[in-house]
Amino acid sequence: MRYLVWVLRLLVFVIVLLFALKNTEPVQVSFFAEHIIQDVPLIVVMLAAFILGLVLGLLLMVGAVMRRRREVNRLRREMDRLQDKLEQAQQSPVSTTAVAPETVAPLAPL
User: Fold this and answer.
1) pLDDT digits (tens, 9 = 90+) for 46-92
2) Taking the chain, what is the end-to-end CA distance rounded to the nearest angstrom?
3) How would you class 10 by CB atoms within 10 Å of its CB: exposed for 0-12, middle for 13-18, buried for 19 or more?
4) 26 contacts 11 by C-beta, under 8 angstroms
5) Which residues pair with 26 in a beta bridge?
6) Contacts of the segment 74-79: beta carbons below 8 A, 24+ positions apart
7) What residues contact 45, with CB distance under 8 A and at least 6 apart?
8) Coil, strand, or helix at residue 38?
9) 40 Cβ contact list (under 8 Å, min separation 6)
10) The model's pTM
């Protein structure tokens, strides 16, 4: 399975490299307020857009990741607390003397 993943990564890399080599024509990039950058290779523009999208996507995921991490830590603490409680219950001597129900609560009124 590991080799298949590396073969797929190599295949994607080669495809992206061939795509980059075919898209080296200079383009004009227009920003807001009439700011223009001339003769930028197309692949640089595409790479910058990809990286910007990747960074924004990761920033949007940070909240969910932190929330899940806090929940996992809370559940681990609760599990440790319950395991400690179970160990204490197993170590404490259990009363084996039977108590008749009548001594706890009489069935008939006196």
Assistant:
1) 888 889 999 999 999 999 999 999 999 999 999 999 999 999 988 87
2) 79
3) exposed
4) no
5) 41
6) none
7) 27, 29
8) strand
9) 26, 27, 28, 29
10) 0.56
